[in-house]
Amino acid sequence: MIDPLDDPAATVVRFPHLKHAPATARNRAPIAAVLSEVLPTAPCTVLEIASGTGEHAPWMARNLPQVTWRPSETTLAGLAAIEDWRELCPDLDDRVHPPVLIDAARPPWPGEKVDAVYTANLTHIAPWPATKGLIAGAAARLGQDGLLLIYGPFNEGGSYTGAGNAAFDVDLRRRNPDWGLRDREAVEELALAHGFTIERPRTMPADNRLLVYRRM
Ligand SMILES: C[S@@+](CC[C@H](N)C(=O)[O-])C[C@H]1O[C@@H](n2cnc3c(N)ncnc32)[C@H](O)[C@@H]1O
To answer: Which end of the chain is more exposed for a tag (fewer CB within 10 A), N or C?
Structure first.
């Protein structure tokens, strides 16, 4: 049987109501490789903030068998898009929970403790209060040793990490002056202030980073 997650571009041709972001198909394997390195090997729960199209949720659950994934978005339309992908993978029902409404910028978020909070491509496509709320909200939902994992493009040492990111930043700020690439060091400062230790940031394809913070 064809797994609808194998080739999402082909799946959206068969099911045109699905939302699809091609970048998720490119970044999912490198992200999963880091998650499998840092997450517990025992059964664990990951809360995803800003799940977007909802494609990462079932794919990560499929490829990280110890993980129960809890997707979230900010609007009912966003939740519906995530549900559409969930419905295609009924075998994952018990490990991909129905999505919940969470605005990162408005912590504390409802719900119980989780082992990790993960987000991809949120910090630069939302005003800075979303990043501040992400860190405060994650700190409240994680116990000792809990992980906050933030994927996306970041500046380092006051510079872009690649020419593509420079052009991307200009475009983001043109679309919304409150958006734009964040300084990795500024995000780390917030994390330290909320009781996280900073682990080695992982260098990812296309000049992205996966920031790894652990709750003390
Ligand atoms: C570029 S998309 C990334 C989606 C997905 N994580 C991915 O990597 O494909 C940015 C997402 O952030 C969400 N978002 C924007 N502001 C947010 C906030 N304050 N709290 C939670 N999500 C937010 C948007 O709804 C959108 O789905």
So the answer is: N
Q: Using CA positions, which residue lies closest to atom 4 of ligand 1?
A: 52
Dist. CA 201–CA 215, nearest whole Å: 15
Determine phi and psi for 60, rounding to 5 degrees: -65, -40
| Residues 8, 53 contacting (CB under 8 angstroms) | no
Structure tokens at 176: 């919304």
Beta strands in 162-207 (DSSP E): 182-183, 196-198, 202-204
- The identity of residue 51, as a single letter, is S
pTM of the complete model beyond 0.85: yes
Residue with CA closest to ligand 1 atom 26: 52
What residue ranges line ligand 1, CB within 6 angstroms?
Answer: 21, 24, 49-53, 73-74, 78, 103-105, 120-122, 125-126, 130
CATH topology of domain 8-215: Rossmann fold (3.40.50)
Longest dimension (CA), the chain: 49
Q: What are the residue ranges spanned by the domains of the chain?
A: 8-215
Per residue in 28-72, pLDDT tens? 999 999 999 999 999 999 999 999 999 999 999 999 999 999 999
Reading the block at residue 83, the tokens are: 């549900």
The predicted model gives 206-215 an average pLDDT of 98
Nearest Cα to 134, choosing from 205, 200, 74?
A: 74
